[in-house]
Amino acid sequence: MTMEQKTYEVGAHPDLEPPITTVGVIGWVRANLVSTPFNAILTIVSLYLIYISVVPFIEWAFIDAIWEGSSDAVCRNENGGPKPVACWVYIDVWFKFIMYGRYPVEELWRINLAYIIALAAAVPLFIPGFKYKHWIGVFLLFVYPVIAYFLFVGDSFGLPQVETPLWGGMFLTLVIAISGIVASLPIGIVLALGRRSDMPIVKAICIGFIEFWRGIPLITVLFMSSVMFPLFMPEGMNFDKLIRALIGVMLFSSAYMAEVVRGGLQAIPKGQYEAAQSLGLSYWKMMGLIILPQALKLVIPGIVNTFIGLFKDTTLVLIIGLFDLLGAVQATFTNPKWGGFHTTGYVFAAFVFWVFCFSMSRYSQHLEKKLHTGH
Question: What is the structure's pLDDT at 31?
């Protein structure tokens, strides 16, 4: 008798494959969808709700939708009413207005060029191991805004001036959202540090600022910046309406960002502060090298949540006469020739907002995994 036969006789045997009902798709379904009778009932109810809601939407938006044409006639019934399906011809006809507002058509290349520069500079930031990310970051934060300003506004380098009342659509939404996002984070960090400062005057000023702006609705801020603020300015002095709106959005968002960052600062153990101080680091070195990197990592979800909220709140600028993406869509409804296609316009606007917000959410989750080093 060989050694292998003796080993088999005492009870050892080759490993067997796991049951097919515990692995793969079948195993996942059993573990997540029908693990208990109650979960099985919830699964059936959920599938039924999906069937009665998603399937009709797919038919309305894709299968039965009208994709080709050049006028509203292809989307109307014999009696002149809109057909009960999505009319993507309407989006095709109004696409430039929805994306750029009333910006002159012959000057749209300036906006597109700014988009291309921003994308070309941002792509290397997502490449692992790229050596010059810090220089690209400096370019995007300090040089690119200047380039974008001269491209968008013009009136220099031979470019004709385009006044801000002509800006609109998705272009205006991005201008307001990106300006607010870029400015609110550093201002919020400074306010959060000031609120936790040991200097009474600095702390009182920061607390007053934060609580003041957090206690006012954004719609009120925009209304005050557009209507009331010019009344307090010296005679003959006036700021552009868009600039006033940008300042209001920045200050409003920075107050909320300050509270998010303050939560991260309070989550850092006191021993981290004491360790940094024992090394002889100054206050700003301690914050920049030890405390803030840890605090900001902890509050990434809160920071991105504030960014997403700010991006969606850009729709409120419609009340002061600025036509962002949603405002541009609503403006098309006033055209009697294209009246009746509200649902298609709102669905398109909702999809665009969802794409941007979902992208920010997924990137924040990527950052969380990348920066998670254990605690």
Answer: 84
